[in-house]
Each structure stands twice: as C-alpha cells, then as structure tokens.
Amino acid sequence: MSSCYLSVVIPAYNEERRLPETLAVVSDYLSRLPGMWEIIVADDGSDDSTAAIVQDFARRNARLRLITLPHRGKGSAVKHGMLAAVGEYRFLCDADLSMPIEFLDRLLPPCAPAADVVIGSREAPGALRLGEPRRRRLMGRVFNSMTRLLAVPGIADTQCGFKVFRRETAQALFAQQTLDGFAFDAEILFLARRYGFTVAERGIEWHYRAESKVRPFRDSWRTLRDLLIIRWRWLTCRYPRTLG
Q1: Fewest beta carbons within 10 Å, which of 7, 108, 118, 236?
Q2: Mind listing the pLDDT tens digit for each residue in 66-88?
Q3: Among the listed residues 170, 181, 173, 171, the one whose alpha carbon sits nearest the alpha carbon of residue 214
Q4: With contact defined as beta carbons under 8 Å apart, do 158 and 202 qualify?
Q5: Burial class (CB in 10 A: 0-12, 13-18, 19+), 107
Q6: Residue of 94, 185, 219, 226 marked active site
Q7: Quick one: DSSP state of residue 183?
Q8: Do the beta carbons of residue 15 and residue 52 sit within 8 Å?
Q9: CA distance 189 to 173
C-alpha cells in the first residue's frame, strides 16, 4: 500500500497567470496536514510557460510532479493525472482554485461522508456561490438539469472541478474513461453509479472566475453530444459490464 495519503491532481492548459498562486496556496495548505502528499500538474499541451513554471516550482518542492501531454482536453489531462497518482485519496482541483483550499477538509475523512467519491458541490446544503453572473448561473442550472436527465440522476452538481476519489475507485473509473472534453465528469460519475461505487456531495464555497475556459453555449452543445455518447456506449456494451 502506498505511504502517500493525498494526491492533488491539477489539470492545466495555458495557466501561466493563475498557476503560481494556486501552487503556492495549495502546497502551503498541504504542508500543515499530517501524512504524506503530492501535487501532480497534468499539462494539457500548453503553449505558454505553464510547464516551465511547474518545473521551477518542482525544483524547490520535491512533492510536485509535472506530466506533459499533447493537447486533447481537460478530461484527458485529468485521466492521466489520476492514473499517475499514488495517494490513498486523490483530489481533483481546478487550476483557478475557485473553491478555497480550506474546504478540502469537507471532502476528506473525518468530515466527509463515507463514500467512494465525494463531490464538492455548488448546489448541496451549505454551498455558497459568490460573484457569479445571473446569466452564467442560469446556464449552469440548465446544463446540470440536462446532465441529471441523461446520465446521473440525483446528483445536483456534476461539473464542479473539486472531487475526491478513493485510490481503488480512481484506478477503476479513470481506466474506463473515454471522453477528453468537459463531459468527462459526467462519464466518471455515470460509471461510478453503474459499477456500484457510492457518491456523496458536500456543499462548498465557490467563487466565480471571469477567466474560466468554459464557454457555455459551445460547451453545452458538445456536452449534450457527449452525454448521448455515454448512454450509447453503455447500451452497446462499449464499457465493461463489471470491473476486475
């Protein structure tokens, strides 16, 4: 069994502006926790100085690793980061750090529910959304409703970029992931349900970032297509019916 308690996986694409502060804040927080930890930045083929920033940080902090990938999408970066991680728990963390890192406590034992996947939710009891434009909020509600209808009923917020997976759960689910785009979250949660893993949500504080790479209209259409692909692949046995 790995001696590493927590892996923080940060997918990044052209994040030279935000990543330095995020790495500093996350590593400072983790340094105050008991147990071993690591940070993995999965660089999705950035064409700015993202990789150089991570490499410079890694020279000063041996617990940071860089994975360099061709540009295929956030889903691809997350998959490679999660499968490369060694922690008993694996935390998916967006590079914009729109969830204050202190809320990670809610997603880990002993504060978190006993579940295989714990989602930091913007819709669960206790959640607080700050600075989000009304139009973006409406688009998010439509998007979540579509996702619940087609893939994961009962989960209020599938797309928030802060989730914790147990080691065995992460290895099983991300090995089956096929989508490279933003709908990878729905695919992973869809498969978690189908394979009998437990999923829980915890309300978090979430801050809107104007530099978000999500484009509501474009990405909503692409995600609708991907949600239908997920359903079709399950119905046509493209995913294994059982694991192991």
Answers
A1: 236
A2: 999 999 999 999 999 999 999 99
A3: 181
A4: no
A5: buried
A6: 185
A7: T
A8: no
A9: 9
